[in-house]
Design goal:
The complex is a heterodimer of chains A (about 140) and B (about 130).
Chain A lengths: L5 E6 L7 H15 L3 E6 L23 H4 L4 H14 L3 E7 H7 L8 E4 L1 H9 L3 E5 L3
Parallel strand pairs in A: 1-2, 1-5, 2-3, 3-4
Helix pairs in contact in A: 1-3
Chain B lengths: L2 E5 L6 H4 L3 H11 L4 E5 L17 E2 L2 E2 L6 H10 L3 E5 H6 L11 E4 L4 H5 L4 E4 L1
Parallel strand pairs in B: 1-2, 1-7, 2-5, 5-6
Antiparallel strand pairs in B: 3-4
Helix pairs in contact in B: 2-3
Classes of the chains: A alpha/beta (about 140), B alpha/beta (about 130).
Chain lengths: ~140, ~130
């Protein structure tokens, strides 16, 4: 595709902390539907977004079973986004900051996530049509 | 010992959590026998608006089937015996009409908040 776009997104917030993470995933979804190549650099708490040990739970306060609750699990959303990108001829290259991973013990990420460094973020940005930084506040 | 919780921080990760975690926490504590009340202030007063619709979130082939329904959660909390009140001016300042809110929440004038706090043994500010 001659007009295929490549974007790089830096994300910083840990899951279940702020709506910025959900908004970021929605932007990635839109880019995936358009067949873009999407680079994600997960920094600080965001390395826990694709943490493989995330587990859905029942919710007694809501009165729902684990199946009924169908709880939002970020790693599943990210896996769905990776499938969506591939379906549309693009790809998601998700890079977790390695030192941030080590600090948090978040080594167990879903397939398709790789360990990297700030140098990867710089190189991805250099090779992209545009870069979006979704910083923590 | 009766506890009043003041909730001000609003819509923080509610799509991910499928609720507000502080409202949820009070549901769980009420279930454990706690004597609780909630005062919503600031942007959190919007939690009381009945016509909120957060459905439709989707990522690729994943669909959210249980979006947050915070007004309903608060109404359910009130039905369990948790007093729900809100700062009246914070509703007015945001252009929200009283008839848009759940029925089980009671207005408190901003100038009466201090007196309200004095009625409780503990006050937690979230």
């Amino acid at each position: 595709m001659a007009d295929k776009k490549t974007i790089t997104i830096a994300i910083m917030d840990a899951p279940y902390e702020d709506a910025r993470s959900t908004t970021t995933l929605r932007l990635i979804d839109l880019a995936a539907k358009r067949g873009y190549n999407i680079n994600v650099f997960a920094y600080e708490g965001a390395v826990l977004q694709p943490f493989a040990a995330q587990t859905p739970h029942a919710n007694a306060v809501h009165g729902r079973s684990v199946e009924e609750e169908n709880h939002f699990i970020p790693k599943d959303a990210i896996a769905a986004l990776m499938r969506e990108a591939e379906r549309n001829g693009g790809k998601i290259d998700w890079v977790n900051c390695g030192l941030c991973v080590d600090e948090r013990g978040a080594t167990n990420a879903i397939a398709g996530v790789r360990r990297g460094s700030p140098a990867d973020f710089w190189q991805m940005a250099e090779a992209s049509d545009n870069t979006l930084v979704v910083a923590t506040r | 010992m009766k506890t009043l919780s003041i909730v001000e921080n609003a819509y923080r990760a509610t799509l991910e959590e499928q609720d507000d975690t502080i409202v949820w926490l009070h549901g769980a504590m009420k279930g454990a026998g706690a004597d609780l009340a909630l005062l919503l202030r600031g942007n959190a007063v919007n939690y009381l608006v009945q016509r909120q619709e957060a459905g439709g979130l989707a990522f690729g082939d994943w669909r959210q089937t249980q979006p947050p329904r915070i007004a309903s959660d608060l109404a359910a909390l009130a039905a369990k015996g948790v007093d729900i009140c809100y700062v009246a001016e914070d509703v007015t300042d945001r252009g929200i009409a009283r008839n848009e809110l759940i029925n089980s929440a009671q207005p408190v004038a901003r100038g009466a908040v201090a007196e309200l706090l004095g009625r409780y043994d503990r006050v937690w500010y979230w």
